[in-house]
Design brief:
By secondary structure, this protein is an alpha/beta fold. It has two domains: 187 residues, Rossmann fold (3-Layer(aba) Sandwich), CATH 3.40.50.450; 52 residues, Winged helix-like DNA-binding domain superfamily/Winged helix DNA-binding domain (Arc Repressor Mutant, subunit A). It contains eleven helices and ten strands. It has an eight-stranded mixed beta sheet with strand order 1-5-4-3-2-6-7-8, with helices on both faces. Strands 9-10 form a two-stranded antiparallel ribbon. Helix 3 links the parallel strand 3 and strand 4. Helix 2 runs parallel beside helix 3, helix 5 crosses helix 6 and helix 10 crosses helix 11. The longest helix is centred in the N-terminal third of the chain and has 16 residues. The radius of gyration is 19 Å and the shape is globular.
């Protein structure tokens, strides 16, 4: 780097193996259900290949990337935008502890008690990009997203940039789609596009229902048959998806929102 950090503070296990095969994942703080599902498809395949996931510990894509990695049995590195003793966002207290407990790492270049600021988050992006060996994957980014800054830093450092294509109607997909269109980033549809090994993540019932309904609206009974599940279990999943605002029921049939 032309402006490397003077020092790095850490909590957790400082194991050089963590950095040998690592990928930075960044994206919108306003992550949509599409972005969430994309992470659930991509991250398991990366974990199987012992890829360490690096991210910035913020709302949205960062938090989901850390969480999905841990849930799949992987290791993750969080680069903070403030001092190690300043928990931000506070909702991530459990995640902070779990990263350390599961042999991950919490990093910061800032002195203890340093409060996160807009400029500290921007500055920490160069560390997120710099630590990755496989490159930077961007999942959902608006037209002026900070994730695009990270993409530019990665390019400057000679790191590969990857992006998940997004829905053309979504404001948080403008940045990622533009990166792909202009040749700044390689389009990623699965983990093998990054690591070259084919891996199919196990189907989650919620994902499968959303995929089925995106093709055609169906009744509860019709969905149960397609999923090979009983009506009660299928109904419970539909209720959860309805409460999350991902589907709606009209005339006895379910539609994706």
């Amino acid at each position: 780097m032309s402006d490397p950090p003077k020092q790095l503070y850490y909590r957790g296990k400082l194991d050089p193996e963590l950095f040998k095969k690592s990928l930075a994942i960044v994206g919108s703080r306003r992550m949509t259900s599409y972005g969430e599902r994309a992470l659930e498809m991509i991250v398991p395949g990366l974990v199987v290949e012992n890829v360490t996931i690096i991210s910035g510990f913020m709302y949205g894509v960062d938090t989901k990337a850390h969480r999905e990695c841990l849930d799949c049995g992987g290791k993750t590195i969080a680069v903070l935008g403030g001092g190690l003793d300043v928990l931000y966002p506070p909702e991530n207290e459990k995640l902070y502890s779990e990263i350390i407990e599961k042999n991950g790492l919490i990093l910061s270049e800032y002195e203890p008690k340093q409060q996160p600021q807009l400029w500290t988050f921007v500055q920490r992006n160069r560390i997120v990009a710099g630590l990755s060996t496989l490159g930077v994957l961007i999942i959902e980014a608006g037209e002026k997203s900070g994730s695009l800054v990270t993409a530019k830093i990665a390019k400057k450092l000679g790191k590969p940039v990857f992006a998940i294509p997004g829905q053309i109607t979504s404001s948080v997909s403008i940045g990622t789609n533009q990166l792909i269109k202009e040749g700044w980033a390689k389009m990623v549809l699965n983990a093998s596009d990054i690591i070259g090994t084919r891996f199919t993540a196990p189907d989650r019932p919620t994902n499968k229902i959303l995929d089925i309904l995106s093709a055609e609206p169906l009744t509860l009974d019709e969905l149960a048959i397609k999923l090979d599940k009983n009506v009660i279990e299928t109904g419970q999943i539909l209720t959860m998806l309805s409460l999350k605002g991902e589907i709606e029921e009209r005339g006895g049939k379910y539609y994706p929102k």
